[in-house]
Design goal:
Structural class: alpha+beta
Cofactor: Mg(2+)
CATH class of the largest domain: Mainly Beta
Helix content: 25-40%
Pfam family, one: DAGK_cat
Shape: globular
Family: Belongs to the diacylglycerol/lipid kinase family.
Order of helices and strands: EHEHEHEHHEEEEHHEEEHEEEE
Number of helices: 8
Number of strands: 15
Bound molecules: adenosine-5'-triphosphate
Number of domains: 2
CATH topology of the largest domain: Tumour Suppressor Smad4
Distance between the termini: 17 Å
Keywords: ATP-binding, Kinase, Lipid biosynthesis, Lipid metabolism, Magnesium, Metal-binding, Nucleotide-binding, Phospholipid biosynthesis, Phospholipid metabolism, Transferase
GO cellular component, one term: plasma membrane
């Protein structure tokens, strides 16, 4: 068995120093061929993945956050072979949470060696694939506004300022939502289209999602006052926001279309795109094998 470990040295909060000795120690008495590489830039993990798959490495382990996992997964999809492994060392690690992969690197490495494989869905919005969640509305704007402050302040402060700025300037979105034979005009706070359960570093936006059920799970939160939002927002962390039945609706569908006359921000697993008009969400026609 040949395993490649790809470490993103800039992911998370500086824990990666410790992982190389952990890997070396674990493999002392195991007869696997393995290689450890560090990424040097954005998208490097995808290119390295493809290089090792060409050299017949079978398992490619992403060591980093959801961005690193997504790049390794893209390489695997492009080559149409290989198994994804995850050692969560990012900031959010939302896919690892959905898959119940331990957040401790040592325990996550044991899972890789246990080799228990799950076939999971890949979702897409337009041409962009995602494993966790794509969304429009206040959450996408928080991601966008947090980026503005990230250059100036560290982690939590940048996020807090991003939330405050968003609360101050956010306007509800008037959109048309279409799924199955249903078409609705709604004024929404957000629409989250989920493949996994979590986004934003542990917010359980879609508690009912199953990542291998060939369905998208959609959470629609209607426009509510900012005071009510202050009560609802904390409940998303433990997936209890469904109790606010008047404002929160969950749907399962194979695909979903959102139409917006105005320009809106679209969050795709933490990347922000600007969109206007029709946005289509689907499942990608192939799954990916992941060690869980
Ligand atoms: N050597 C590098 N230098 C700069 N950026 C890199 C490097 N290697 C990878 N990246 C980029 O770092 C970004 C962040 O990585 P990642 O998402 O894994 O970590 P994170 O943001 O801390 O975690 P999460 O997404 O789980 O919150 C990715 O977009 C990736 O392309």
């Amino acid at each position: 068995m040949k395993i490649a470990f790809i470490i993103n040295p800039v992911a998370g909060r500086n824990r990666k120093k410790d992982i190389v000795p952990i890997i070396k120690n674990k493999f002392k008495n195991i007869d696997y061929k393995y290689i450890i590489t560090h990424t040097k830039d954005i998208d490097d993990a995808r290119l390295i993945t493809m290089k090792y798959l060409k050299q017949d490495y079978k398992i490619i382990v992403a060591i980093g956050g959801d961005g690193t996992v997504r790049e390794v997964a893209s390489g695997i999809k492009e080559m149409n072979k290989g198994i994804l492994g995850i050692i969560p060392m990012g900031t959010g690690n939302d896919l690892a949470r959905t898959l119940n992969i331990p957040l401790s690197p040592d325990k996550a490495l044991d899972r890789i060696l246990d080799h228990n494989i799950r076939n999971i869905n890949i979702a897409k919005v337009e041409q962009n694939k995602f494993l966790n969640v794509a969304s429009i509305g206040i959450d996408a704007e928080i991601v966008k506004n947090t980026r503005i402050f990230k250059g100036l302040f560290k982690g939590k402060l940048a996020y807090t300022l991003g939330v405050l700025r968003t609360l101050f300037i956010f306007k509800p979105k008037s959109v048309t939502i279409k799924y199955d034979d249903i078409e609705k005009n709604e004024k929404v706070l957000l629409v989250a289209v989920a493949n996994g359960n979590y986004y934003g570093g542990g917010m359980m936006i879609s508690p009912n999602s199953k990542i291998d059920d060939n369905q998208l799970d959609i959470c629609i939160i209607k426009n509510i006052s900012k005071i009510k939002l202050l009560f609802l927002f904390p409940s998303v962390y433990n997936g209890k926001h469904g109790k606010y039945k008047k404002y929160v609706k969950f749907i399962s569908a194979n695909s979903l279309k959102i139409y917006s006359k105005e320009k809106i921000f679209l969050n795709v697993d933490g990347d922000i795109l600007e969109k206007k008009g029709l946005i289509q969400f689907d499942l990608y026609n192939k799954n990916i094998k992941v060690i869980v």
